[in-house]
Amino acid sequence: MKSPLPIPAALTGVDALEDLGLVAPGDRDALEAVAAEFRVRITPVMAGLASAGVRAQFVPDARELAVRPEELADPIGDDAHRPVPGLTHRYPDRAILHATQTCEVYCRFCFRRETVGETGTLAEAEFDRVVDYLRSHPAVREVIFTGGDPLVLSARRLGAMLDRLEAVESLESVRFHTRVPVVAPEKVTGALAAALDRALPVWVVVHANHADEITEAAAAALRRLNRAGVPLLSQTVLLKGVNADPDTLEALFRKLIRNRVKPYYLHHPDLAKGTGHFRLTLAEGQAIMASLRGRLTGIAQPLYVLDIPGGHGKVPVGPGYLRREGEGWVVTDPQGAEHRYRDL
Ligand SMILES: *Cc1c(COP(=O)(O)O)cnc(C)c1O
Ligand code: SF4
What we know:
The model has no long low-confidence stretch (mean pLDDT 94). Helix content is 29%, strand content 18%. With 344 residues, the chain is of the alpha/beta class.
């Protein structure tokens, strides 16, 4: 599956894509328009994979110019709960820290596609305000680094930020949501793993959407994190043209388990602008999840969730196995047969 020539640097424009034969003749003008609207960046590791499920995530598509009326600039309402710059505090016990807006890749379906890449790294003075906020809000037990992609920051800078957070006594854990171990595994250096290996537990949630993304280099990066005592979880976005069928997801979830990563969330795609060609219905998503139940080990089953547009939070969206009937319930088993159940 590897391309014959190593790709030396990240691809960031239509010219570079064309050189690699990733632009269909006649698409050039449309793709220039897409690239002007939504940033393009593909790491050498990902550009070197010929897998259609991987390419569709990163190579721009003329269909991104089609914005549907229901699509939103801030589909999950990050901006609705922002007490200080860089922090989103929606749930009482945890807050999201936007440490940087930069990513190693710009995913074509990204729910933050209108903010990524723009504003750089959180300034030192802004981080001071975040720490002050956390000190004065001890109900916050967990800080979740996201972005952008927080693991684009240097090991030194991350270590310094974690030192400050470790001194906030109310914090019980820190979490990173990142694509770096998969899309730029060489960035998970020994120094980075060491920076995450500390008394305050650091959890890493790896964003992975297709088994082909998990190269040998990615597996080695995950192992470095695992050896540093970092528990590994994954999140996956359900995407038409990438992974929206049971076999593709089963292969991904098994490969994650094989690499000591526990599948955590399967996200229904958000209403981000120009991403309609990736979306499927909730009923289709539920049918995929139902077919994995029973045939795939329980530890490889993520929770299928929807982030309710407008900042109302994430909720599981099924499939459901239970309905009321008379005084009791009817429960559906993994094969689809129904059984009566009386709880009282
Ligand atoms: C997704 C999200 C979280 C984390 O939710 P978990 O269910 O704990 O993974 C926290 N805050 C915000 C604003 C979120 O969107
Ligand atoms: S790495 Fe994450 S934040 Fe960055 S473009 Fe991809 S999905 Fe969006």
